[in-house]
Amino acid sequence: MTIPIPHRPSGFLLGDPAALIIIDIFIDIQCPYSRLIWTTVLDVLNHYQGKSLSINVHLITVSSHRQAWDINLGLFALAEGDAVTFSDFVTYIYARQEQFYNAPFMHKTHEDLRHLILRFAQQHAEVDPIKFLNRMNDDDIYGQARTPIRYAAIRSVWATPTVFINNATDVPIDHNSRLADWNSVIDPLLAG
Questions:
Q1: Bridge partners of 57?
Q2: pTM to 2 decimals?
Q3: Residue 65: is its pLDDT beyond 70?
Q4: Domain residue spans in the chain?
């Protein structure tokens, strides 16, 4: 089965849209390792602000993370394609990640999860509850949230976080990497 052409490319682009250094990062909102790398990703963006660097964030769902898919729908619904709004809400949700791990949700319902996402959105952005939940149910949001997963499959991404720099797969960066580690990879590319 071929993948239909999406209405917009996968990911949320942060940084210079015409950058020479393009970092693709695949994260899962329920993945603790993705949460660890996220703080450093924000540090990298701040450090290289004004430089020819961009980070394209692809939000995917790892199969064992049961709550991640619905939270992704909420992220896409709130962001409405805006990368800064997306980034801010990802940061907000990662700070509350322990609330939606599998163990705390073992005996909760799908409706409990939807109310948790709504509460996050209301606390973060004061959304209209009816409009927000309707947007989460919209086919357009569903399509937007599926696109990164399909793109991840094409790129053979099976775990999060996964990082590519200028499409290279052998990138010595992971969730334990700090800004200095990223600098040691990026600075020579910018100098070259």
A1: 12, 25
A2: 0.94
A3: yes
A4: 12-183
- Percentage of the chain beyond pLDDT 70 is 98
Q: What are the CA-CA distances from residue 19 to residues 1, 22, 26, 166, 170 (Å)?
A: 33, 6, 19, 10, 20
Q: How far apart are the first and last CA of the chain?
A: 41
- State residue 139 phi and psi, 5-degree precision: -60, -35
Instruction: Give me the long-range contacts of 68-73 (CB less than 8 A, separation at least 24).
Output: 68/28, 68/29, 68/30, 68/31, 69/145, 70/110, 70/113, 70/114, 70/117, 70/136, 71/29, 71/30, 71/100, 71/113, 71/117, 72/29, 72/145, 73/117, 73/136, 73/141, 73/142, 73/145
Taking domain 12-183, whether its CATH number is 3.40.30.10 is answered by yes
Tell me what pLDDT residue 5 has: 76
For residues 62 and 68, the answer to whether their CB atoms sit within 8 Å is: yes
